[in-house]
Amino acid sequence: MGSKVSRRSFLRTSAVGASAVALASAGSARGFAANEKVQLGWIGYGGRATGLMQKILKSCPDARIAAICDLKPNRIEAGQKDAERDKPRGYTDLREMMDKEKLDGILVVTEPNKHAETVIPVLERNIHCFAEKPMDITVEACDAITVAARKSKGIYQIGTQRRYHPTYIKAMKAIHDGLMGRVTFMQGGWHWSSDPSGAPVARDGGRLIEQASHHMDVMSWVMKNQHPTTCVAMAFQDQSLVPGSQLNNPNEFSETKSATIFKFPDGVLFSYTHLWVLPGKYDEEILLAFGQKGGMDFNEGLYTGRDEKEQRFGPRIGKGWDEGSTEELIDFVDNIKTGGKRVPNANVETGRICSLMCIMGRMAMVNKAKNAYEPSVVKWEDLKSTTDLPAKA
């Protein structure tokens, strides 16, 4: 996957990334001259945005950063400096930016709790939208984005970039083609030596919601984009890491460790641990899927059969949290320039499932009314989402 052309071709021809459910036709198409650039707007210029900006500037020659919007003037100035090549104009008001600029696409890289309020106006203007994960931090906000995305003539692409990583794509196709037989169990984890305890829940819903949508997405993908039926979880917040805070206050600061189990149809379990403040040697991502004939280690890019024979699907990824980001941005720009008619690998239907799974896990570990970590069993229907599609006959 060395060249941009080969990456585009690979993503465009891969069928396994697209959602299996029925989708509204994507795309707000316009014609582009051969050398004309896709005009992009940017909403939110914090930490994650800076990395994505560099990838766009380096790897997307068909794109121009035309405008940057943020509520903080210093962040606008930082974005303008980073994208100096494109001379973007700065705005503190999203609607003013959309009124004054002729934008083909907008990237939303705000705090998770601001996603719905920024994504929905973009989609209502039928402007192509790339938004970071998760969809948002509440069921109601996720549903609102889902409704807007299904109605919009613009693309909605969510930043679960593993659906654009060549190793994941190849490995997932092999699983769906029957390499390891019926899926029997899945295991995942994201383990860190850093400290998440100062992250306010009001901003990101808790670390499970803010981060784990990547892994929820992969396991739903293993299950051919099904959602789980049931979830149970336990979590804890270490007060010693949050000086001056109330002991175990889940409505204030994030959990520091959690264990979550999902049950999918046919009794397939997915066990997930999200741990922080570990010795550095234990920093790792874990993404394993097991079946009747063998197991797939996604982070190693390696399948091992029951006969111990191995099949490699790519180089070792390890804790590759950013892997696939370049490919997802290339595909977003390419999709716009070629007519905006392709359903993105990471789309509204896959995005709602992984985001709602994270919210489901949070519900199972926190009694919000008691303001306490208290394990419970949560059914998918307990989410009360209004956007589930009818089951296929």
Description:
It is a single chain. The relative contact order is 0.18. The chain is 32% helix and 21% strand. The protein has 2 domains: 4-160 and 326-347, NAD(P)-binding Rossmann-like Domain (Rossmann fold, 3-Layer(aba) Sandwich); 163-320 and 352-383, Dihydrodipicolinate Reductase, domain 2. α5 packs parallel to α6 (139-151). The two termini are 38 Å apart. The longest helix has 18 residues, at 348-365. The protein has helices at 4-13, 47-59, 73-82, 94-100, 115-124, 139-151, 166-176, 201-204, 207-211, 213-222, 325-337, 348-365, and strands at residues 38-43, 63-69, 89-91, 105-108, 128-131, 156-158, 183-191, 230-236, 257-263, 269-275, 284-291, 294-297, 302-305, 310-312, 366-367, 372-373, 377-379. It is globular, with a radius of gyration of 21 Å. It is built from 12 helices and 17 strands. It has 393 residues and is an alpha/beta fold. Strands 14-13-12-11-7-10-9-8-17 form a 9-stranded mixed sheet, covered by helices on one side. A 6-stranded parallel sheet has the order 3-2-1-4-5-6, sandwiched between helices. It has a two-stranded antiparallel sheet with strand order 15-16.
